[in-house]
Design goal:
Layout: E1 4-7, E2 10-13, H1 24-28, E3 31-39, E4 42-43, H2 46-59, H3 68-82, E5 87-96, E6 99-107, E7 118-127, H4 132-135, H5 142-153, E8 158-163, E9 168-171, E10 175-180, E11 183-187, H6 197-208, E12 212-216, E13 228-233, E14 237-245, E15 249-251, H7 258-274
Parallel strand pairs: 7-8, 7-14, 11-12
Antiparallel strand pairs: 1-2, 1-6, 3-4, 3-5, 5-6, 8-9, 10-11, 10-13, 13-14, 14-15
Helix pairs in contact: 6-7
Length: 280
């Protein structure tokens, strides 16, 4: 599965390509990426991911050079050539001198087992709320990866960040939600976090279902009187959280029931519908 990639629109063997070691993408993490779930050999929320990628590439002062339709057929050719049924595809655009490189390849699946609840550890690393790297999926992901690894070393599945004001932001690979005071609550984007594709879908579903949704500034202590906590990402969808450790252990209702069940059921429907997307 990992032997082939698409490089600037061409399907090639991975072992046959070389990337310049002094490129800005490799040397400084100057690039953007998207991770798209593959379900039944098809791409989930493909157009949404492409639109976000294009916006981030433009914000970074680069150009993509491919339309959604171009990327769609490149991804389809790679999936079919590699006979992938379920997994994840990455679209990467990186700076290399006066040119940009766009390549597609498969990503290993998350270590989190969706059949069991997630355990989260509060990270001591502080994220800057106005940093470009917290609002876009850049190749400079060292903070996220190292803090996730540290959490895993302590027996947890994820880590949770705060910003310079002590406000909750997001996890290393997911957005966070909690059910509290009769509302679905989640940190607002101005706290410094990625505008997640699944995050946006969950907020929309909740509002359409008549649930109260509050995007605001929250602190670790606000989790103390929450009934449920769950995280969202393209790979995991909606995953319930069993435990959060921020100096003391908080435990939550980890059953896929109530509000979480309503959201999960409707999200699954939307994800299935998105498999029929055709990039316009």
């Amino acid at each position: 599965m990992a032997d082939r990639i698409v490089l600037n629109g061409e399907l090639v063997e991975q072992g046959e390509i070389s990337l310049p070691v002094n490129s800005e993408g490799l040397s400084y993490g100057y690039g953007l990426f998207e991770t798209i779930k593959i379900r039944d050999g098809r791409l989930c929320f493909f157009n949404e991911h492409c639109e976000r990628h294009k916006a981030s590439v433009f914000a970074a002062g680069m150009s993509l050079g491919f339309s959604n339709k171009d990327l769609f057929w490149q991804a389809r050719s790679l999936i079919e050539a590699s006979s992938v049924v379920d997994g994840a595809l990455k679209i990467v655009t990186a700076k290399s001198g006066s040119k940009n490189l766009t390549y597609l390849h498969f990503k290993r699946t998350s270590k989190i087992d969706n059949q069991r609840p997630t355990r989260i550890r509060l990270s001591s690393l502080v994220k800057g709320s106005s940093a470009f790297t917290v609002k876009h999926k850049t190749l400079n992901y060292m903070d996220n990866i190292s803090e996730l690894s540290l959490a895993e070393e302590h027996g947890f599945d994820e880590c949770l960040f705060t910003n310079e004001r002590g406000e909750l932001t997001e996890c290393s690979m997911a957005n966070i939600f909690f059910e509290r005071s009769g509302a679905i609550q989640t940190p607002s984007l101005d706290c410094g976090l990625l505008d997640g594709i699944v995050r946006a879908k969950v907020i929309k579903i909740a509002k359409e279902s008549g649930l109260s949704v509050l995007e605001s500034k929250f602190y670790p202590e606000d989790l103390e009187d929450s009934e449920r906590v769950f995280i969202t990402s393209s790979g995991k969808g909606i995953a319930p959280v069993e435990e959060v450790d921020f100096g003391r252990i908080l435990r939550f209702d980890d059953e896929v029931s109530g509000v979480v069940k309503v959201l999960s059921s409707r999200f699954d429907e939307l994800e299935r519908e998105s498999l029929g997307q055709y990039a316009e």
